[in-house]
Structure formats: C-alpha cells, structure tokens
Amino acid sequence: MAEAGGFNAGRYPYFYGPEGRLVLVDSALEAVSRGSTTIGIKTPSFALIASHIKPIRPLVDSAEKIFQIDGHVGATGSGYIGDILQLIDELRLEAQKHRLSFESPIDVGSLAKHLGSYLHNYTIYAVRPQAASVIIAGADQTGVQLYQVDPSGTFFRGSGFAIGQASDSALDVIQREYSADMTVEQAVSLSNKAIEKALGERPVVEIGVVSAQDGKFQMLR
Predict the structure, then answer these.
(1) DSSP reduced 3-state for 146
(2) Could you tell me the CATH number of the domain that includes residue 170?
(3) Do strands 3-4 and 7-8 pair parallel, antiparallel, or not at all (unpaired)?
(4) Which of 82, 139, 178, 216 has an alpha carbon 20 to 30 Å from 68's alpha carbon atom?
(5) Residues 97-127: pLDDT tens digits?
(6) Eight-state DSSP code of residue 7
(7) What CA dihedral angle connects 120, 125, 130 and 134, to 10 degrees?
C-alpha cells in the first residue's frame, strides 16, 4: 500500500472519513453541539458574550461560564468543560506572555490566531482534539472585536455567533434582530431571547461585556 509522508494510510483510518473530513474533529464538533448554548454579539460600541448555565446536581455549584482573559478581553465556550478550561488557561498564558514581553496588552486578533494554531496542532497528530469551541470578545487599538475559534483551529471574526445546543436556532434569532446601533441592554435581551428560543425554556445565563468607551471587560451577571 502506498505511503505518504512516511505514514501508511491504511494504518490511520481515523484521520479522514470517506468524504475527506477529519473524523476526530467532526466528533469534537458534535460534542460542542451538545454543550451549553453560547452567544456572541458585537456592535461598534461593545461586544457581549453570554452562555447558558445548565442545571446540575443538587448541592453542586454551577460551573463558571464567562472568563476574564486580560483587562480588555473575555471569553466563553461550549463543549467539554475540562477542555474549555484548558483553552481559557492557554489564552490567559498567551496574554500574560505578551504583556511581559512587550509591556502592552495583546490585540484580540493575535489571541484568536494563537488559539487557532494551538487547536490545529491537535488535528495533525494521533491525539484527541479539544472538544470545545470558544468565543472571544475584546477591545484593542483597532476597536471592539469578536472571534469564534473551533476545534479544527479555524477562527472567524464577526458580529454574531452562536455555538452549543440548538445553535442554529439561536443564530437565526440573532441574525433576524441584530442591529449595529443596539444598546447593551438590547443585546442582553436579544442574547437571552436567542438562548430561550434554542432551549424552549427561560434560561439562567452568565453575561460579560467589553465596551469601546473604556476598553475593559466586565461581568454583567
């Protein structure tokens, strides 16, 4: 059997499926689709991230869903919470390294690119990809930024994202009602509405926001 790059293709059936898709990445994306419904909304004035807090067992505290990465950046995610926490730590470490090296805050695009490269490394070796997608919100010298990074290492910049359970339904609500001149209060209401539409019930949601005015990320609830 022919070999490519020193590897016998017949010995590694778990990399690519019949249609050329990465099997392990598809499995990771499937795990993300079962995670908490999570939203990102950006206007020229602010970026907001929101995530549903799933009910857990009695007497057990709920897991944190919104994380501060640096003073000007926050993030949230959907998927396996252990994988989300590892990716949050990786983002925080990269932000700290940049501050120590350059004595300035890292720009949001560089953070997204770093996390994309970090996740991509899991797709080229015989290891399990991280089963988590992350939404990053921040403000830098170019303005307010919102990124989504997937288990494949692919990252997107945009004004509206939805990941996790029934994310297509949530994203449909955002796309229909999004306005570039909405207020933070309106964006909070929209994110709650999108998550409620996805779940079919009134959710408990954590929210964080960063504004262009002061460039600081903070928790709203």
Answers:
(1) strand
(2) 3.60.20.10
(3) antiparallel
(4) 178
(5) 999 999 999 999 999 999 999 999 988 887 8
(6) E
(7) 0
